[in-house]
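A protein record pairs a chain with a discrete description of its three-dimensional fold. The shape at a given residue is found from the number at the same position. Here is what such a record looks like in full:
>
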Amino acid sequence: MALPPLTPLDPNAHATFGFPLNWGIQDPEKFYKLIQEMLPLLAPGYYLGDNLLTWQRNLSLFHDKPFVQAWETNIQNNADRVIAWRRFVLACAGYHCVQLDGDFVECGAFAGSGMKTVMDYLGGKAFPKRFYGYDTFDYHPVAEHAQAGQDETLYPRVVKRFEGYDQVTLVKGLIPESFKTACPDKIAYLHIDLNSATYEVACLEHLFDKVVPSGLIVLDDYEWSYPYQDQKIAEDKWFEARKYRVMPLPTGQGLVIKR
């Protein structure tokens, strides 16, 4: 298995990142004006975007050349660009999980950018695992979460995007019924991004026991507050009953390591 080589950190090369896409701002014009005044005051290594502002960080994602190539190749809109750090979390999780027994699963695949970024980071068309992507792949949005391009043309576009990626199984339909169409026996990597406490708990109910020891579960919205708090509340209760604790990440994601 060919894993991407780690690019050595150049201590003299300070990466920075800023993209004006954030949410929950009452006065965006004033906010970004103040941000521009503040940035020169910060130590090198700042990241601004996706409701994340941090500085004096290595920003390892931008030093990882194979990741940067995989990420940039799969940017289809501004959201794909600004969530670079979230995508790097997925890529690092994939690096770990591709060395385990079990397949990869994404619930809430949408246009397939997250799946394809991970696959391209770990071999592209030579990715060594089966990767299952579940979504309605049509206009069936969760309340308040409709996205541009979420219509009847989405599924054929995603299918075309994965031409030559024979490891990919795209499963169209509502979860959990769609698991009856196709579902792996063992899962090494599980990414859940459904914007709904009900559907995400349904994923856990059906898939958690299939996750192999040391497998990783990434919950995309876990640490985001309104309107995602119902997901954290429901998932905390679900994991607490099994004596697990979700690790909240500053990207807004949550991480669980299967025992």
User: Anything to note?
Assistant: The domain at 80-257 is CATH 3.40.50.150 (Rossmann fold). Residues 121 and 145 are 28 Å apart (CA to CA). The two ends are 25 Å apart (CA to CA). The mean pLDDT is 94.
